Amino acid sequence: MKRTLVVLLVVASGESAAQGACTATVREVVDSSRVAATVTRYAQWDSAGARRFDAQLDTLAREYDGSFAYATALPDSAQRGFRVLAKHQPRIRAQRDFVERVPGVYERVQDVLLNTLGDSLVRSNRASLASPADCVLRALRAPALARQLENLRRFERKFGPTSVKLNFVEVIANYGLQFLAWPKLVGVDASGSPRPWEAVVAYRTTYLTLTGVTGDSGKASPQAVSTAEFGLRHYNFGESWGTGSSTISRMVKPGYWAIGFIVAPESNGAMRYPWRGDSRWGPYLAWGNLKVGWLTGGRDKRVVVSREVMLVPYVF
Amino acid sequence: MPFVPQRQVWPGQDAILLVHGIGDDSPGESSASLTLKRALGADAARFAIYDLRYDDLNDWIASKTQAAQLVSWLRDKIRAGFGGDDLGDTVANLAGDVVWPIMSTSARSALVQAFTSQLLAMALDGPNVLTQRISIVCHSMGCYHTYEALHHITSNAQLHLRPSDGFKIQNVVFMASPVQLISTVSGAIDSLVPQRGELALSNALVQPVQNFNGNMRPLIKGRCVSITGDLDPVGGHLLREKLAWAYMKIEGQEPFIDEQHVTDIHTKDQLRDLLISSFRSGSVPKVTVQNPHDWSGYINRHAADLQSWLVV
To answer: Once rounded to an integer, what is the mean pLDDT over residues A160-166?
Structure first.
C-alpha cells in the first residue's frame, strides 16, 4: 500500500518566533533537488554523479512513502535527525534497512544539492531550490542550539557563582579525576553536558553537636567538632533546582547535594586534628548548604550538623 | 549570567564573527567592531557583525577554584617581566586565561560550545543556506578558540554545521594567533594536560576539513589568513625575530607579518618634524608608545586587505 509520508519539520524552542514555523516535506526536498539537477545540467558535466544522485532521490522518495508525521517525534527527533524518526515510529522501525540507509542517503542528497550544485544554483539565481533543504537544516539546528545552551546553563550551575568553591586539595583532586578512564565522574559526557559530580576533600571545623552541661543534666550546649570530610558532591541540573527565590525553596530543591564520610578526633572542639586520639567516623549527607553527619565509629557516637561554608580561602 | 549568543537580523547575505581575545569584555559594541566598520566603509552596512566574548566562562572557573589570586600573582610576575606596559598586560592575561581550556576539560568544552552556539545562532539568523556568507576575524586567545571550535564542528554531526550540511566559513582571519605557542607549551607538559589528544592543536596545524564518506570537504571556502606583528610575542615574534615554536603556520594559510614600531615615530623625518614643532610650541615632544598586540592596530593596518577579502 502506497502511503504518503509527510515529513513535517517544526522549528523547536524559541526559534519559531524569530524564524516563523518552518515546515517542509522530504518530498519537497526530493522534488526541488530534481529541478536543481536539471537547471544546473548536472548530467552534462558529471553523468555518473547525476545518475547516483537520481538513484538516491528515488530511494528517498520510495522510503518516505508513508504517512508518518515527523513532528510527532519532536522535539527529540530533531536532535538526532532521521534515526530518531525510526526509533519513535514502530512502522518505520519494522523496515529493517530504513535506519541504516535513509539517513545516509538523505545526507548524500543534501551534500550534492548544497555543495556540488550549490554554487551553480547561486550563480543562476536559483538558490531558492535549496529552501526545503534549508528548512530541514533549520529544524535540526534550532534544537542543536537549544541543547548547547542547556549544556552551558549546566556549566554555570556547576562552575558559576552559586556553585561551591573548591579548596586547594579539591582542585587537585578534581583535576586528577579528569585523567581516570573509569569511573568518569568529572569532565563532560558525549553530549557535551558537564558531569554532575565533583570530589569533596575538606577539613571542616564548622560542625556542631550538642553536649550536656557539667553539673546540670537537663541542659545541653553546642560544641564545635572538627572533621575531615571525604565524599562526592552532585549538582542538580534540573531547571527548577537551585534557583528558588527564597531560602526555603532553595532548601527544598537545592542546586547540589553530597554524600560521603567524616572523621573526627576523639574530643569535640574547633581546630582539632581529625585523627587525634581514638578518632570517630561515620557517614554524612549534605542537602544544599545543610549537612548532617552521624559519627557512628568510635566511643562517643553523636549527630553533628553544619552549613557549607569556607572560612579560609583555599584551605577550609 | 548564562551565556547567551548574540542574535540579529542580517541586512544582507554577509556576516562577520569577531572573536575577542581575553579581557575584552567591555559592554556594548566593541572597539574592534567599530574599527572594522571604519575599515569596511560604506560596505559595513551590508554586514551583520557579531561579537563573541567568553570572559564570564573563564571567570566562573577562576572563581570556583579560587585561583583568581594565583592567576593574578602569575600575571603580575609576567607583567613586571615585560616592563608593566600594555604589552606586559597582554602577555600576562594570555598566560592567565590559557590555563583553563588546557587544564580543565570542562572549561575547554564550555568554551567550544559557547563558540558553536554563536555559529548556530548566526546560521539560523542568516538567509538561505546557499547564500549566507559567514567570515570570522579573531584576535589573540580568540584565535585558539576559533581553531578548536572549527575543527570540532567538522566532526560533530549533532551540530549540523559540517560542510556536508552546506555550512561553510567564507574567510577566517587570524590576528596575533597564539595557537602554535599553546600547542608547543601544552605539548611540553603533555602528561599534565588531560585528554590532550582531543585538542585539535595536539596534531599538526591544518585547516578544518570534514571527511565525508572518504571525500574531504574543507570548511573554509575562501581565505585562511594569518596576520601577526614582528614585535608581538603572542603572535610568535620576539624583538622582530620569528620564533618557529610560537609562530602559527597552518597549511594553506596566507601569512602576513606586519612591521611594527615601539612608538608612533617610524622615520627620521617624523622625528625631525616632531622636534621642530616641539621647539616652536615650547612643549614636551609627544611620543606615543604603541601596543603591538592591539587588535584595532591590526585591523587599521589591514583595512584595505579586509575590505578586499570580506566584501564580495
So the answer is: 92
Query: Cβ of B217 and A115 within 8 Å?
Result: yes
- Scan residues 217-236 of B and list those with Cβ closer than 8 Å to A: 217
A239 in contact with chain B, both atoms CB, cutoff 8 A: no
Closest CA of chain A from B99, distance in Å: 12
Q: Report the run of H or E that residue A215 belongs to, with start and end.
A: none
Q: Can the peptide bond before residue A183 be classed as cis, meaning omega within 30 degrees of 0?
A: yes
| pTM score | 0.87
Highest mean pLDDT among A90-99, B227-236, B250-259: B250-259
Q: Is A152–B2 a contact, with Cβ atoms under 8 angstroms apart? A: yes
Considering only CB atoms, A156 lies closest to which of B2, B66, B159, namely B2
What pLDDT, on a 0 to 100 scale, did the predictor assign at position A73? Answer: 35
Q: List all residues 6 or more positions away from B269 whose beta carbon is below 8 Å from its beta carbon.
A: none
Asked whether the beta carbons of residue B120 and residue A145 sit closer than 8 angstroms, the reply is yes
Could you tell me if A85 and A110 are in contact, meaning their C-beta atoms sit under 8 angstroms apart?
no
Q: Which residues pair with B216 in a beta bridge?
A: B211
Peptide bond into A75 cis (omega under 30): yes
Q: Where are the alpha helices (DSSP H) in chain B?
A: 31-40, 55-64, 68-81, 86-97, 99-103, 105-125, 141-155, 179-188, 268-281, 295-301, 303-310
Taking only residues 79 to 108 of chain A, the set having a beta carbon closer than 8 angstroms to any beta carbon of chain B reads 79-80, 107-108
Distance CA B207, CA B219 (A): 8
Contact present, B176 and B234 (Cβ < 8 Å): yes
Report the chain A residue with the minimal C-alpha distance to residue B1. Answer: A156
- Host H or E run for residue B17: strand B14-19
B66 and A313 in contact by Cβ < 8 A? yes
**In the predicted model, what is the mean pLDDT of residues B195-220?**
94
How much of chain B exceeds pLDDT 70, in percent?
Answer: 86
Contacts of A51 (CB under 8 A, 6+ apart): A43
pLDDT at A3 over 50: no
* A122 → closest Cβ in B61, B130, B163: B130
B131 interface with A at CB cutoff 8 Å: yes
pLDDT of A68-118, one tens digit each?
A: 333 333 334 444 555 555 665 555 554 444 545 666 788 899 999 999 999
CB A254 within 8 A of CB A308: no
Measure the CA–CA gap between B166 and B147, rounded to whole angstroms: 20
Q: Is the model's pLDDT at B98 over the cut of 70?
A: yes
Q: Which residues of A touch B116 (CB under 8 A)?
A: 148
Give the pLDDT confidence score for residue B58 in this predicted structure. 83
Q: Per residue in A240-285, pLDDT tens?
A: 999 888 888 888 999 999 999 999 999 888 899 999 888 899 999 9
Rounded to 5 degrees, what are φ and ψ at B143? -70, -40
Tell me, yes or no, if A124 comes closer than 8 A to chain B by beta carbon: no
